[in-house]
Amino acid sequence: MLSSLQRFASGGGAFAIHAGDPACGGASFHASSREFESQLHAVATAERASLPTGWPIYHVPGNHDLEPNRGGLEPWLSILG
Q1: What is the pLDDT of residue 16?
Q2: What's the confidence (pLDDT) of residue 50?
Q3: Cβ distance 77 to 32 under 8 Å?
Q4: Which of 10, 24, 53, 67 is the most exposed place for a label (fewest CB within 10 A)?
Q5: Which tens digit of pLDDT belongs to each residue from 33-80?
Q6: Which is it for the CA torsion 67, 49, 16, 14, positive or negative?
């Protein structure tokens, strides 16, 4: 996906919209809070490393973006929001 976004950005694409679920959160996945936040950080780090500095990706939360133990979007918002 990131290589496709690289080509899109270098070809003049102005931004991308990520339609949610970059990690496996939500209670049904049995992920720990630490694992979930680690996955979100990994996504953000990979995007920054692969794409031009400041090139915008707008993240929209999906149903798997809820904190796995407490629910809510607080970790997602602080990392990708």
Answers
A1: 95
A2: 92
A3: no
A4: 53
A5: 888 899 899 999 999 999 999 999 999 998 888 888 888 899 999 999
A6: positive
In whole angstroms, give the CA distance from residue 49 to residue 23.
18
Determine which helix (DSSP H) or strand (DSSP E) holds 16, and give its type and residue range. Answer: strand 16-18
The alpha carbon dihedral of 31, 67, 50, 19 has a sign of: positive
What number of CA atoms fall less than 13 Å from residue 44's CA on the CB side? 14
Give the per-residue pLDDT at 49: 93
Element holding 74 (H helix, E strand): helix 74-79
Question: Which residue shows structure tokens 């690289």?
Answer: 6
Rg (CA), the chain: 13
Query: Do residues 40 and 22 touch, judged by C-beta distance below 8 A?
Result: yes
- Residue entry with tokens 């990520």: 18
For 8, the token pair is: 């899109």
Structure-token pair, residue 36 = 């979930």
